[in-house]
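Researcher: Next entry in the queue.
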Amino acid sequence: MTNIAFIGGGNMASCIIGGMLANGFSAQQIRVSDPGEQARANIQETYGIAATSDNHVAVAGADIVILAVKPQVMGPVVSDLAPSLSATSAVVSIAAGIQIGDLQSWLGDSQAIVRAMPNTPAMVRTGATGLFANPQINSQQKESIQAIFNAVGIACWVDSEAQIDAVTAVSGSGPAYYFLVMEVMQKVGVELGLSEQTARELTIQTALGAAQMASTGSLDTTQLRQQVTSPGGTTHAAIETFKAGGIEESFRQAMQAALSRAEEMSKEFSS
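Model: Structure for this entry, 271 residues:
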């Protein structure tokens, strides 16, 4: 049985734990440490999981240690924790901007380390997580770590650490792109005469339906768009307006800005 320790018991850790318990993991496999009394109480009451304020106690005997603390405090937390970690443990960081090299400088070059970039839909178990491992990770550890993040959505391994920044631009920041589109659609729907409630319900269900079609059907997104876009029809008029407004270039610039900021953050937090 794989034993998993979470360092940090905040929202993301809590939602990952909830997904794990709903997908076959046992509460006895999991331990959590957090300095906040309320956070510990929430974990214990919600999930029946042992929670402590002592990081060293939490990682004792852990096969996988998930670092779920803010990037600004990662260095001191990990440096203090390092002597208590088993040489055979896999360490997973979900903190944005903290690179494998930084973690190795605190933990040692022989430690198995994974960077994970989950996103907020993990809170409703429809998350998307990008994963990158250093060479010290073995296949069994990779399988166990993937199972953890599959419990809250899907998890994909990338081939280079630089691609984690691309993951950030696509799925890490991506939910906000869709929220913005939905926000605008609701606003315009009201301007066109719909009630706020009707505009909201139609917009959200349309987004949900489109995503479901894209994820379960055999057609790609281009084919799906073409399928619903009859020449000379209402959708065609809307799509041509989007194209004339430069929607593709706007997304390209926005996602490049997210990528550039992710790269800047890595430099800011680098030791």
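Model: The mean pLDDT is 95.
Researcher: Noted, moving on.
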